[in-house]
Amino acid sequence: MDFVKKLDTDTSLSILSCLDDPSDLVRASAVSRSWREFVIRYSLSKKLCFKLFHELTCVDRIIIETSNEESSELQAEHRAFALLAKGCTSSSIRSCIADAIIASSTDNFPAESILNTLNERDKIGATPSYWSSTGHQETSAPETLLYKLKGDLCVVTEFSIQPFKAYFQRGSPIYSSHYVRFRLGHLHNNSLEKNNYVWTYTSQQFPMAQENRLQNFKLPEPVVCIGGFMLIEFLGRVQTQETDGLYYICMAHVRVMGRSLAKSFQLVDPDESGKFGLKVVSYCDPKEMGETEEEVGQRLFRQMRNLDHLLNFLNRHPIDVEYLWPESDDDDDDAESDGEA
User: Fold this and answer.
1) Which of 101, 179, 230, 242 is most deeply packed, by most CB within 10 A?
2) Element (H, E) at 219
3) What is the full DSSP assignment across 9-25?
């Protein structure tokens, strides 16, 4: 029996709304023409997205550059939200940080730049790799690190941070913080002005251990970062430096794990109320859109936004090059002159 045809609309909606897996809803829409029309007419893919990730309720329009004239607006919306639901739940979990933007303070720039936190090790060769804040007399003085994620939409599942152990100082102190907190959001009205961000998600405060290891902070449930920016707040200083008696915070590595939807969607015109448009970039299967080694190499060099960052990159990754200079004609003439003499 086709219950969609036999039952009233409310009962059919109640039944199909029990599907929590986007793949199950896609299968349901493929059962028959009447089921597909019902799923599309009542925007069940859209409602499932909102149910799984409440942050997506801020999507107020879908933008499609090339659409099939035969497809209705509801059909185009259904296809876009079905792709969005699949990408948010089944695409590969990877590292989501694309770039390090700025730190609230840096003790010795560029040697102790925020860019160092992108390295997975606390040493590059014999050179220590870490970010360090400036020193402060008050333990309550906070510090922040700002990062750009891979794409306007990322489903974040876990944050990881490794405090730095200063093995070159007496006693090998570890410059951790008491607590850490994470914020996710976007630029306000696409402005590039400093501190002009809208944070749509703020995590709880997680306690940090004063240990030189990668510490994982798993979220109770995955969170959609809308806009692609992440702010880390370090709250409470725990370690003084022997030479000046000031409190510092130093981090060796920062990692964010999740699902990037950069190759499927772009954020369009977020407004003051938090609403935004979602532009469909590609309908390719999110599971099959991994990052190639070539793209990784190109991205690394695109991150070198200015000379200071380039110098820091070269400082952290020195390259020894032996130059072979071709013999010049002048050298040959000099040799002939010496022979004649």
Assistant:
1) 230
2) strand 215-226
3) HHHHHHHHTT--SHHHH
Q: What is the pLDDT of residue 324?
A: 47
Element (H, E) at 36: helix 33-41
Residue type, 208: M
Report CA-CA distances (Å) from 125 to 129, 165, 316: 9, 16, 9
* CA–CA distance, 228 with 211 (Å, rounded to integer): 29
CA–CA dist 106, 143 (Å, integer) = 10
Q: How far apart are CA 236 and CA 142, in angstroms?
A: 6
Indicate whether this model's pTM tops 0.85: no
Consecutive 10-residue averages of pLDDT for the chain (341 residues):
78 86 86 88 91 89 70 84 90 92 94 94 89 97 96 94 95 97 85 73 96 94 93 97 96 96 86 82 65 44 48 50 50 53 46
Radius of gyration of the chain (CA): 27
Residue with tokens 């925007």: 43
What Å distances lie between residue 168 and 108, 118, 126, 127, 301, CA to CA? 16, 21, 11, 11, 30
If you ran DSSP here, which 8-state letter would residue 306 be given? S
148 contacts 187 by C-beta, under 8 angstroms: no
Q: What is the DSSP letter of 327?
A: P
| Gap between the Cα atoms of 299 and 303, Å rounded | 6
